[in-house]
Amino acid sequence: MDVPVPVVEKKDTNALDFLFADNAVTSRFQSVYNAFSERREALGLSNPGTVENIAKEVQRDVFLNNLSFSGLRADLTKAFSVAPLFQVSHALSMGGQNQPPYTYAALYGSPWVFLQANIDNDLSLSGRFNYRWTNALVTKTSVQLASMGQMVQVENDYTGADFSASFKAINPSILDGGITGVIMASYLQSVTPKLALGLEAVVNRMAMNQPPEMAISYAARYKGADWIASGQVLAQQGAIEASYWKRLSESVQTGINVNLSFAGMGPMGPAKKEGQVTIGAKYDFRQSSFRAQIDNQGKVGCLLEKRVAPPIQVTFAGEIDHKANSAKLGIAVSIDAADPEVMEQQEKVAASDAPPIPF
To answer: What sections of the sequence does the record tag as coiled-coil (predicted)?
Structure first.
């Protein structure tokens, strides 16, 4: 009589199961990590942005520090495609400070790649190349070749669900027998739905015969219903920077920035106290926007952007420095040309869910 032989199912085994699945230490660590992740998701935290842009609502949206200019300027931009983005531009300027008379630029962008190159009449070349490895990781590179010097910058940004990490290197080199240049690393983490804390470390070493210099700053950002407060503390330099932004209405937003420096504190000598306070406001109208700011040094500036037609925009910039007894005035005209087919592509891209271009 034949006796049935029990069939034993063979489980797929892996050489690493002892380290992960069958190991009590790693299993405990994995369970703790999973519990921590679940509680972290239950808090409903959002991405707080980066330390570099911790006060972007004030510095970029309200203030006109990066928008002010002087002299006459004309910009002509021609878009050949939207998906992917491809356009060229010609910029002419006269009477402005630190502005070349002519600049030619070309730009290409897709959800994964961004390319930009500029060249002026002095043959100064600058370029940017960004690549999105994943939805969270983006590598950014920029190069500048000019008669006054060269600059190379490499940056990696990782955008998590509730944090941002960045690593940047400026003019890195290993040709001198070691690492030289400027290395920057930052991390910003949301700890509550409204509060985010972070830090930034900067290491600077211009040459191997010079000792490296390191600076660490601590950052905080608090977001209310219609206002945002942020601050940074540079302990080694004895500096404090604080910003406050508030939306007064759908078309009006204001901001204030305070910089305090206490250089020289300690046994090395008496402290040199310096401070700067800047207050600004931005008004958005149907076809125009107006920015104005004033600081405690007696400098008053304003910027008016007016779209007189769908492809034409006129910009007026003015600045008065009462302390230096000087004034600046700038007028610019920008023309954006595009075929009707390109305009139709733009409407389709705006309605799609494609990832943004990694600018």
So the answer is: none
